[in-house]
User: Fold this.
Amino acid sequence: MKAFNTWASLFLAVLLIFFSPLLSAYAEGNNPASSPVSSASSGRITREIFQERLVLAGKFHDVRPVRPMIENAIERTVSRLPLKDQIPFRKAVDSALDYDAFVEESVRAMASVFTVAELEAMIAYYGSEAGRSSMQKMSAYGDLMAPKITGLLDEALMVVRTGPLPDKAGSR
Assistant:
C-alpha cells in the first residue's frame, strides 16, 4: 500500500505540474463563474470578452484535448504500480474523476486566465505540425522528469518526518 500512496502522490504532482496554469486562477481567487472576471490589464473584462474567451478555450480543447492527456498520465502511472495496486488505483481514479466536469472547469479556467490573443496563439501553435509534434513528445519528457519529481517529493517527505537534511555542496 505504501507504493500505491507514493505513486498516487506522483500522479497528482504530475497533474498539478501540467495543469498548474489553469489551477492558478482559482488559487488567486479568480472565480470564472462570476462574470465579468478580472483582467490584469484593465482590472475587469466584459461578459462579451469572457464569452469570446470561453469559445476560444473550447477550441483549444478541440485542438489539444485534455481527456487523452489525463488518460495517458493515468495509464502510465498505473503501469508503474505493483500489480496488486493497479486495479484499486484505477478504480479510485475513475470514481474520483468526472472528465466532462474537468474539461468544463478547464475551459472556464483558461477563459479566466488567458487573453483572447493568448488563446488564439495557443490554438495556432498546438494546431500546427510543430505543436502536435511537441505534444507527442510530452510523454517522453514526463518520463525523464518523473524520477526527479519523485526524488523531490521523497526528500520533502523525509524533511517532514525526520527534520532538515544536511546541506549538500553545490546543491540547488
In short: Residues 20-40 have pLDDT under 50 and may be disordered. Residues 2-27 form the longest helix (26 residues). The helical segments are 2-27, 47-63, 66-80, 83-96, 99-113, 116-126, 129-136, 138-162. The chain has one domain: 2-149.
